[in-house]
Design a protein that fits this description.
With 137 residues, the protein is α+β, with helices and mostly antiparallel strands. It has 2 helices and 7 strands, in the order H-E-E-E-E-H-E-E-E. It starts with a helix and ends with a strand.
Length: 137
Amino acid sequence: MFDAIPDAAVSALTAAGLTAIRSFPETPFSGESTVVCVSMPSVKLMSSGVGSYIGIGFEGLAPREMYGSSVEAVLRFEVYSPDADSADTVQTLCSTVLGMNRLTVTALEVGTAEYDRQSGAFRCECNAKLRALLIRE
């Protein structure tokens, strides 16, 4: 159920022209190009109100009551780059994350690029705290 959140981030970043994958992919990636690894280290499911009532939405012109839950999550984006200059990738990452549909970003933290011996690439970690509504159909 929660996989939809990081999957949506991977899709949005890929559509923005970045190479994005979920963390711990089945196939290893080469260090020849810049890659963004997406994970979700924390997620919290909460009641959205009395009886899980969210509010009124519209299907076409017809109003309908919506029920579901509220989610608070942290998405972690690890940018791996063969060189220290990953500024363009990080800028595209931030603007894409802030513009994602149906997710409200409440905080965005961008780290500094440092060399990571294990991957043999420069690594920059970015974290986005967000809120979303899971609507029951």
